[in-house]
Amino acid sequence: MSSTGRTMDTRVVSEMPSMNTRSQTPPVERDVHIEISGVNKVYNPNSDEPVQALKDIDFSIERGEFVSIIGPSGCGKTTLLKCVGDLVSQTSGQILIDGVPSTEARKARRLAFFFQEDVLLPWRTVMQNVLLPLEIKGKDTSDPDIRREAEKTIAHVGLEGFERALPNELSGGMRQRVALARGFVFDPEIYLMDEPFAALDELTRRKMNKFLLDIHEDVQKTTLFVTHHIGEAVWLSDKILVLSARPGEVDHVVDIDIGRPRDATTRTTDAFHEYEDMLTEILMQDEEF
Ligand SMILES: Nc1ncnc2c1ncn2[C@@H]1O[C@H](COP(=O)(O)OP(=O)(O)OP(=O)(O)O)[C@@H](O)[C@H]1O
């Protein structure tokens, strides 16, 4: 286990049996996909009450890594995700995707967003919802090749046979899988996920976690995942970025040294529980949490 943090608490570290600080690990070749440097975000900067959401964020994500962002409510998790996806602009600093600004990456549709609400169009079938991003992109969605691709994506999320169903005929978990398929269909390089399973009941959420785990281990897309759920973050992630209370700063970066593939038994291991306890303790130290 390893953890680095701007405000590393030695008491927490010393309690962890096999924790090393990152400076002790030998240098390895890194393939940086997303580079966040000196990012600050202030909302309403010219008003009487500017809100500094992010402060001096330096963080990088390697290709194929699954990184979760956790932290106290309102600490800037969504803001950071939106800055990476160029849905809001940072006030200062830069975010590069493979060395190019995130604005260009968004325009080239290299990024896909997934939100808590499945935002499916209720009058469109599963197939029509999945085809929507391709339609917006100006593709001819009556093209048999495109439809085959969409069918493959629908099958990939386990919804084969539901192509003609309407959203209101599906369960919450199924609707969320349609939303995932809609993001996957244009084969983006990076998944940006903002609490995609927060509205689901615990059992469905577990199933969706396992589903995403399998997809990630299959396609290994670089993923940035915002969550409040520590267990979910540990199960899914290679690395967890913990932000401090607002203004969000990098508080800790915890590498999850649990091998893959992971399955339900992973959640019963000592290592899993140690990570859960460590992260809970880090978050509890923040008085505003
Ligand atoms: N458009 C906006 N205008 C002004 N302030 C905003 C805006 N969006 C977010 N904020 C503020 O910025 C801060 C960070 O918000 P953000 O939603 O990024 O945090 P979060 O960690 O994702 O929150 P939560 O855990 O509640 O989902 C909060 O204080 C929020 O009120």
UniProtKB/TrEMBL annotation:
The domain of life is Archaea
ABC transporter domain location, by residue? Answer: 34-270
Query: SUPFAM superfamilies from the xrefs?
Result: P-loop containing nucleoside triphosphate hydrolases (SSF52540)
One GO MF annotation is: ATP hydrolysis activity
- Using the record, list the residue span of the signal peptide; answer none if the entry has no such feature: none
- The portions of this protein that span the membrane are none
Task: Give yes or no: UniProt keyword ATP-binding.
Answer: yes
Q: Which UniProt keywords apply?
A: ATP-binding, Nucleotide-binding, Transport
The protein here is known as: ABC transporter domain-containing protein
Q: Which organism is it from?
A: Salinigranum rubrum
Q: What does UniProt list as this organism's lineage? A: Archaea, Methanobacteriati, Methanobacteriota, Stenosarchaea group, Halobacteria
